[in-house]
């Protein structure tokens, strides 16, 4: 009887010891790996921004060096379109959107984001001589399954699109996830966001855009819901509750 008790006690003790060791290992790895995860996240973000700026080939393996050389990340106030001071490295649009003091509920939430941060980080791309070459603007909006995050690269005229690069989404492979297909991405360069009156005209066209349509891009086939999400995301972010105040201001003055 007593030896049974002893065996039971030992078993429980052993199980507890294993649990404690495992818990310590898991928390140790979580703490140890956090900086590495953050560094990888930053590297991934910088890679996507360089891709949107058309600088990924130039960068080769030196993403960080190329990013630091050509990209100037600046914070703006979305309502006024003015540059403001702020921590661009740790900026998180979705974290701000959860804080009612740092965000607004859009009047026309066509992108399905619920709340929009008052500020945004824009990426000014400089050429070798330090002049503004292009601008990369982050976007977020609902796809079919979840929010989709990406970047739009614009020429210095702040109207002509160089690229639409999605960085994070949960759309279905072969359907909505075709936003990552190089053939679809190749349809964007040269498309214009605004018409001559300043209306946001950019959109995806189900069945295919006409060859001379400067505002239309082919919708993703079999993925009308994701395509509508992309159209609404672009129309929101280039509209008056998105980057329009910034764009209007700096199209007139030129980004410095
Ligand atoms: C499992 C599953 C996953 C789907 N994923 C997507 C998707 O990622 N994006 C999308 O727009 N439609 C997706 N659809 C299809 C939509 O339900 C809908 O049929 C489609 O968007 C209509 O597009 P079409 O008019 O181009 O055929 C999915 C359907 C199923 C059954």
Question: SSE order in H/E notation?
Answer: HHHEEHEEEEEEHEEHH
State the helix count: 7
Number of strands: 10
Low-confidence spans: pLDDT under 50, at least 5 residues?
A: none
What does this structure look like?
- 38% of the residues lie in helices and 21% in strands.
- It has 256 residues and is an alpha+beta fold.
- The chain has one domain.
- The strands form 3 sheets. Strands 2-1-5-6-7-8 form a 6-stranded antiparallel sheet. A two-stranded antiparallel ribbon has the order 3-4.
- Helix 1 packs across helix 3 (63-70).
- It is elongated, with a radius of gyration of 23 Å.
- The N and C termini lie far apart (85 Å).
- The structure holds flavin mononucleotide.
- Flavin mononucleotide is lined by residues 144, 171-172, 175-176, 221-226.
List keywords for this structure.
256 residues; 6-stranded antiparallel β-sheet; two-stranded antiparallel ribbon; 7 helices
Task: Summarize the topology.
Elements: H1 2-52, H2 56-59, H3 63-70, E1 71-77, E2 83-84, H4 93-97, E3 103-104, E4 116-117, E5 119-126, E6 132-142, E7 147-155, E8 161-168, H5 182-185, E9 203-205, E10 216-218, H6 224-237, H7 244-253
Helix pairs in contact: 1-3
The chain binds flavin mononucleotide.
